[in-house]
Design a protein that fits this description.
Elements (H helix, E strand, L loop, with lengths): L12 H20 L14 H25 L6 H26 L1 H10 L6 H58 L1 H17 L1 H20 L6 E2 H19 L3 E6 L8 E2 L3 H12 L8 E8 L2 E7 L12 H13 L5 E4 L3 E7 L4
Parallel strand pairs: 2-4
Antiparallel strand pairs: 1-3, 4-5, 5-7, 6-7
Helix pairs in contact: 1-2, 1-5, 2-3, 2-5, 3-5, 5-10, 6-7, 7-8
């Protein structure tokens, strides 16, 4: 038995060590009227049948709670889980109680005769089932309350962590955009374009402004429409294509019906930045970046031609995207590096 099972929410060994003996003692007092120090006296022998029934019901119901919480783990399934869980627990409590009461029938009847109690068979069974149902519901309510509070605390912590990761992504994107090299490269590109093509220069400035504006607009968003992210990615791709020309080939192929699904903001821009930063982009070795959807996921892939860098990649960008997806959607991103291709697959979030 796993005492620290995450679906229980806490180590309940102490609760069981105290609760089972306590409930076993109180049931004969509350439901059968036996007393300490006055008639009808509480017989010690009555404790053990009560203890056996309480132990079996407690452990069985505990197992049912773990299984139903594993089967219906989503927040949207809480109502369904509670209905199924409660039904199974009540049915189990009644079945176990009646089965063990039948097996211990001779002991119970002997105790009744010794105390001159005149419970009829039907009345005795009703009291036993009432005791089982009341005690089971009370204990399950305690377990469910603790589990709910733990899940609520975990949800709050994950939400705060998601906010931190989102702010971190925004900060990383801003750091990249205000990086002197980024500004220097874009200003150089702009100065080269202005004399030959003033119209393209105006477009360049507008697209550059669009990229910066998007970073500021999504600062409080945990997810945005794929369409919005792709629109800004097109703007960012325009800047890169203007700078690298035919040395960089960017292909974005996403089906229309996928555009209303969601994605964590700035993820595509970070992935494209990584591709440019870590790979050679030249006329002799053009870089190709493909963005497309497949099996409910968005794929960003590039041909692998690593730069001879004097430093190791920190992997902060990928780690940030991975953390945000795990917190927001529960599904991981997939990273695959082959001999000729580097691919990142990120899940699309239903709208």
């Amino acid at each position: 038995m796993r005492w620290s099972n995450s679906k229980i929410g806490f180590d309940d060994r102490l609760v069981m060590l105290v609760g089972i003996p306590l409930f076993s003692f109180l049931v004969p007092v509350i439901f059968f009227g036996w007393r300490i120090g006055q008639p009808p006296y509480y017989p010690l022998a009555a404790y053990w049948p009560s203890f056996a029934i309480t132990t079996v019901i407690w452990i069985t119901c505990r197992w049912i709670m773990i299984r139903t919480r594993q089967r219906y783990a989503s927040f949207t399934q809480v109502k369904k889980r509670l209905m199924i869980q409660t039904s199974l627990i009540l049915l189990t409590a009644i079945l176990v109680n009646n089965l063990l009461s039948y097996l211990l029938k001779d002991v119970c009847e002997d105790l009744m005769r010794q105390r001159n109690l005149s419970f009829k068979t039907g009345e005795f069974a009703i009291n036993c089932n009432a005791a089982a149902i009341f005690s089971t519901l009370l204990v399950c309510a305690i377990y469910e309350s603790i589990y709910f509070m733990n899940e609520l605390r975990k949800s709050v912590e994950e939400k705060e962590m998601l906010k931190r990761e989102s702010l971190r992504a925004q900060l990383e994107a801003l750091k990249t955009q205000v990086n002197p090299h980024f500004l220097f490269n874009n200003l150089n590109t702009l100065s080269a374009v202005i004399p030959d093509n003033p119209g393209q220069a105006i477009d360049f400035v507008q697209q550059l402004s669009r990229v910066y504006r998007h970073i500021l607009e999504v600062k409080n968003e945990q997810s945005i429409l794929l369409k919005e992210e792709l629109d800004v990615l097109q703007a960012y791709a325009f800047l890169l294509k203007t700078r690298f020309g035919d040395n960089l080939d960017i292909s974005i192929r996403v089906a229309e019906e996928k555009l209303q699904q969601k994605i964590v903001p700035l993820s595509l821009q970070i992935l494209m930045e990584n591709a440019i930063k870590h790979n050679v982009v030249s006329s002799a070795r053009p870089l190709r970046i493909d963005v497309y959807t497949q099996d409910g996921r968005l794929i960003v892939s590039n041909n692998l031609q690593k730069k001879n860098q004097a430093y190791e990649s920190t992997g902060i960008g990928l780690e940030n995207i991975r953390n945000r997806y795990l917190l927001l959607d529960g599904r991981p991103i997939e990273v695959e590096e082959g001999p000729a291709c580097f691919t990142v697959s990120i899940p699309l979030i239903g709208n």
